[in-house]
């Protein structure tokens, strides 16, 4: 996975924190749905899930770990041994094919704002920056044409031009109310898709999981996304 692919998927990587169980009672509108999601996130501690990512012609898969308030890790099985880690301060990407470690220091919340989607405040930002509506109404529909899995689909449409995605669609299991799929459409019309499988919540993931030991043979490149002017 090259640098540009990383730039495309990262705004949704941390948004994968939306994969939590929500209270289905009295949900009438899509806006109300998002409000209840924010409420659930106030007490959400961590989760783990198998994740499948499609970005353009690139297909990736691995295990995702999240811990509140802003810790994220994906250990990829495809590409094998590739890793993305965010410990709340530094984003680290290990690309084994290039023996390269990409580090990005983040000291200003706005610079890597997608990481905030992993919190109750992040969901509040989604509600403020995106307008929510049901794709076909609150009734369950097929996940896609080739699947028998039933989901409720919510469309989030950007309100402001500064957002990197013009639209995000959440596909939610109608029984467990766990988000099964997230699809983001970029300003250029490219689709980035995350599928979440076997989501396990509040399992006590230790903070040490988000400490990455770099391979000694890898070359390190710092501030590969942008230069941190607060340093």
Q: What's the overall geometry?
A: globular
Strand-residue fraction? Answer: 35-45%
Q: What is the β-strand count?
A: 13
Specify the CATH homologous superfamily.
Lipoprotein localisation LolA/LolB/LppX
Distance N terminus to C terminus?
28 Å
Q: Secondary-structure element order, as H and E?
A: HHEEEEEEHEEEEEEE
Description:
The chain has 231 residues and is mainly beta. It has one domain (3-222): Lipoprotein localisation LolA/LolB/LppX (outer membrane lipoprotein receptor (LolB), chain A, Clam). Helix content is 14%, strand content 39%. The protein has helices at 3-13, 30-41, 120-129; strands spanning 46-55, 58-67, 71-78, 83-86, 90-95, 100-105, 130-134, 141-142, 150-158, 165-172, 179-186, 191-201, 219-222. Strands 1, 2, 3, 4, 5, 6, 7, 8, 9, 10, 11, 12 and 13 form a 13-stranded mixed beta sheet that branches. α2 (30-41) packs antiparallel against α3 (120-129). The radius of gyration is 17 Å and the shape is globular. The two termini are 28 Å apart.
Set down the secondary structure blueprint.
Layout lengths: L2 H11 L16 H12 L4 E10 L2 E10 L3 E8 L4 E4 L3 E6 L4 E6 L14 H10 E5 L6 E2 L7 E9 L6 E8 L6 E8 L4 E11 L17 E4 L9
Parallel strand pairs: 6-13
Antiparallel strand pairs: 1-2, 1-12, 2-3, 3-4, 4-5, 5-6, 7-9, 8-9, 9-10, 10-11, 11-12
Helix pairs in contact: 2-3
Task: Summarize this entry quickly.
With 231 residues, this protein is mainly beta.
